[in-house]
Amino acid sequence: METVKEEITITAQITRFVREDILNLVPYMPSNEPCKIKLDANESPYDVPLEIKERIWKRLMDEHFNYYYDPTCDEVRENLSKYTGAKFDQIFVGSGGDEVIYDIIMAFAGPGRDVIIPFPTFSSYEIFSTIAGSNVIKVPLLKKQEKGKCFWDIPIDDIKKHFTKDKPQLMFLCHPNNPTGDYFDDDKLEDLIRDFNGIVAIDEAYFEFGGKTFADSISKYPNIIVIRTFSKIFSLAGLRVGYAIGHEDAIAQLFKVKMPYNVSLFSQIAAVEMLRQTDWLKKVQQEFIKERERLQNGLEKIDGVTVYPSSANFFLCELKKPRDMVYEELLKKGILTRRFGDDVLKDCLRFCIGTPEQNDLLLASLKEIMSSK
């Protein structure tokens, strides 16, 4: 009994020490549910081929593990310059896209500054902004239906109501948006960028699946910072490599706030080798796009499933049956999907695009669940 009282006392004491704005913060907690088919985190189902891994191992064997590795990721930046067309000093590399997002917030937001986030979107924008002490302004996306198709639209006027001229702000735009799946209208986004007094962070984590980018608009809009990652098409989610493209003056600020030696030796070498595998990347890209079309057609044929359009490697689907029941039934069949806490997504699941065999099993399982009484 005394031990329980002591634990309660310690809990109350620690709670008293926590910042008030952090106390009620819900952390990002990926699912650890055991499964046969993992379709919850928008990862690539295709592992890096053994021959490419061997090239990476060979380079690693010649390196010194006892010394810190390149703190500014210069070789990665040189190869990214060739891949993206951006200049070397317009590129910043971080430990995954998450660290890049965090560093942008640390450099351009923080206490007393607003961070505007259209939602639903990637939850890290809000979590990291709260951790930094920023004032988070969430603006709901609009659900629309035209010509029998459902989609999500960005509310330009509602967002602009929060723009201020007296102090700089930060805004996140996910392009295409996660978890809704598709691009917003480019003219609307440019309208927001032109009128905004601050940095616009455009998250292009799924660039390779849709092909549209604002990276070539940096000279026109120097307040843009584009965020990308090696976690999707490059199949390096486990190694944590992300990068930013922006005006050199904006990129210079990110180097001021980043952690020293933030990207490991292993991750930098793997990123360089993957950037050289253009044939394999094109093959994977084509497979994803082909499977995306096939999976969409299959999902649209299942009664009770509304499929939102996607230019990424996943689909958001609204279900006529209880979302949690469908989630649990799929999990019983070994398929892990993603459900969200947002009220606006309470009837939705998100499915990552898997291999053809995985997609077939998902379609068959979902059809069985949705047709059962």
UniProtKB/TrEMBL annotation:
Q: Which reaction does it catalyse?
A: L-histidinol phosphate + 2-oxoglutarate = 3-(imidazol-4-yl)-2-oxopropyl phosphate + L-glutamate
Transmembrane regions: none
- SUPFAM superfamilies to which the protein is assigned, alphabetical: PLP-dependent transferases
Give one Pfam family, short name only.
Aminotran_1_2
- Does rRNA processing count among this protein's keywords? no
Per the record, residues carrying N6-(pyridoxal phosphate)lysine are: 232
Q: Which UniProt keywords apply?
A: Amino-acid biosynthesis, Aminotransferase, Histidine biosynthesis, Pyridoxal phosphate, Transferase
Q: What superkingdom heads the lineage?
A: Bacteria
Cofactor section: pyridoxal 5'-phosphate
A molecular function annotated in GO for this UniProt entry is: pyridoxal phosphate binding
Specify whether Transferase is a keyword of the entry.
Answer: yes
| Pathway in which the depicted protein is active | Amino-acid biosynthesis; L-histidine biosynthesis; L-histidine from 5-phospho-alpha-D-ribose 1-diphosphate: step 7/9
Q: Which GO terms describe its biological process?
A: L-histidine biosynthetic process
Q: Which residues form the Aminotransferase class I/classII large domain?
A: 36-365
The family annotation for this protein states: Belongs to the class-II pyridoxal-phosphate-dependent aminotransferase family. Histidinol-phosphate aminotransferase subfamily.
The UniProt subunit note reads as follows:
Homodimer.
HAMAP family for the chain: HisC_aminotrans_2
**Which protein, by its recorded name, is this?**
Histidinol-phosphate aminotransferase
Q: Taxonomically, what lineage is the organism?
A: Bacteria, Bacillati, Bacillota, Clostridia, Thermosediminibacterales
